[in-house]
Each structure stands twice: as structure tokens, then as C-alpha cells.
Amino acid sequence: MEHRVIYPRPLKKGDQVCVIDPANAFTEEGIRNARAFLEGKGFRVVFSEDMAFKRGTAEERADRLNGVLRDRSNRAVLCMWGGYGTIPLLDKIDYEAVRTNRPIFSGFSDITAIHTAFQNRAGLVTFHGPALYSPKRPVTPEAQKQFIDMVMHPQSRRELCNLNGEPFRTIRGGTAQGRLTGGNMTIVSRLMGTPYEIDTEGKIIFLEEVGEKPYRLHGMLYQLKLGGKFKDAAGVIIGGLTGCDDEGRPGSGEEAVRTVLEDTDIPVICNVRAGHLRDPLTLPLGSEAKLEGDRVIIIGT
Q1: 208 is catalytic
Q2: Active-site residue among 115, 208, 209, 254?
Q3: Is 189 labeled as catalytic in the residue annotation?
Q4: 85-108 pLDDT, tens digit each
Q5: pTM of the model
Q6: DSSP structure string for 94-152
């Protein structure tokens, strides 16, 4: 059952933000850098109990997550980074607390599972945003600025543009409008056939990936295609396909996408730099958006 869409309360300087690790575990370096970034933006920062994969049973980890979600003083719940292990939490989350407290929620990669569950079970608009700290792909100041602006003005209308100046590219042109949904392609694929399967009817699907060869992208996209997920959708946004080209072999990640989606009847835009990148755009999942040719416009309310 899909719930009425609700927006989180805008984040303000002085608000308390809680950093969590529902996939990969905290490190001292990560805590130090995430704290410095968020305190530098004027927020009060706390860190949750460790709830990462293999840091207790799924029930114990979910209890820690629910403790964070039930605490009304946490105006934002921000995931440190991605990793693995959020899917076992989905059937144990207190979605009523999510609906009641409406926190800003942000994360990417494996966190796609929680984004999708929050949309389906609570109706909350959430943010596909950058890692708070990444030694492998340090996030640029421009991406951090866009993220902070988005969570402080979650209902604002805005047009998205790649932060490095690269244009978006169209695979299929046209105009579409609908609420954004999606995230990491692997996680969207893993949720198929479960109660937390992505709902794409009338929506704009965002998909990104990292480190998967073109044939695996082709397979996951065809699974979604045969499952009717593109037939009922309004449009598709393809984000970063980081490290998905198979060097020394013909074809690329984008070519695999084109092969599957070029015969759909909906607009498809690619090269939208969101995902596993140093300069990722933040996307408000659940918010109304519009595709016009090679333009992506967040309508907000």
C-alpha cells in the first residue's frame, strides 16, 4: 500500500542530525570527517550505535535504527556511506515513526533499499545524496553545497545540471512528469518479487550503478523490463555508471542501457551525474519531477 507523499521538515542550522551506518561500519576517520563537515555547516551532530551488517542480528540492528527514527530530536538521519546489509532491516522498521517524525533521510548505494521502503510504507520524500565521507571518492565542495541546499529547502523548485558542466544526453526524447523513485540498480533488482519491490507506475525511475560489467547492467535492466517496470513508468533517468565499462572489450555501460531502453515509449535521459561519483547530484526521491528533452526539473510540491 502506497501512502500519501509527505515532505520532511526543512533542516535548519542548530538542528540535530544523527549519522548512522546501516550498511558498512563506522571508522574513526569517517566519524571525524563527517562530524567536521556537518558541524561546519552549523548542525549539532550525534552518531548512532553501530548498526552495520554483522554488528548484531538483523533484529538488534533494526532496534538501533528504530531508536534513531523514534527520537524526535533527530531532525535528520544521514547515512555515513553505502555498503551492504540494509535489506534484512526492511520488515523490522517502524514506519509509523518515520511518518510521524518526518526526518530528513539521506544515503545512496545499498541505502536504496531503505529509500524504497520509506516511499512505499511511509510516503516520505528522501534524498539520494553523497557519502558523508569517502576516502576513495572524496566528495567535491560543489556537491556538498548542493546537498545541504537541498535538505534545507526540500520543497523548492529547481533545475538540475551536472556540477562538472557535462550535458545530460537523451536516449529517447520527450516530456514526462512524475515522482522520482529508484537508486542503485542492483538493489532495485534484488527487491523485485518482494513486498518492497519498486513501484514505478506513473513515476520517473532513477537508476545508477558502480563496478558492474555491461552484460550485468543489461541483465538487470531486462529483468525490470520484463517485470513491466518501464511499461508503467513516466520516464527514466540514468545516473552514473561508474566503472561499468569493460576495458578491452566492445560495448559500454551506456550502450547496454541503450540496447534495453531505446525501444521504450517513454523519455530516457542518461549521464545525469548522481551516484558513485566525486560530484554527485542530490535527488529528492518521492518529489515531483519533469523531463523535457534533455532537461530535468524538480517541481517539488
Answers
A1: yes
A2: 208
A3: no
A4: 999 999 999 999 999 999 999 999
A5: 0.97
A6: -HHHHHHH--EEEE-GGGHHHHHHHHHHH-B-EEE---S--SSSPPPHHHHHHHHHHHH
